[in-house]
Amino acid sequence: MSGDAGGPPVGRGWCVDCERYVGDAMAVAYAQGNSGPGKVLEACIAHAREYAALWFAPQWLKDDIAALDTAGTAPDADPRDPA
């Protein structure tokens, strides 16, 4: 996890969009449970960027993406882009 370098925690997890395990997952939402514990929804950094760009994205997600950019740990290119 890279959270110790001042940025948000990024590590292996399930991307809700890619629908597979990825090595660069980060939290994008916190779902509350009515009769049990809540759940953290994760996405790869590329999809987290897409979520953060939405008008209704939580401020903490925008801050996490900005921290990744500042720390220089985020990939420059979208790994799903074939170009």
From TrEMBL:
This is Uncharacterized protein. It comes from Streptomyces cacaoi.
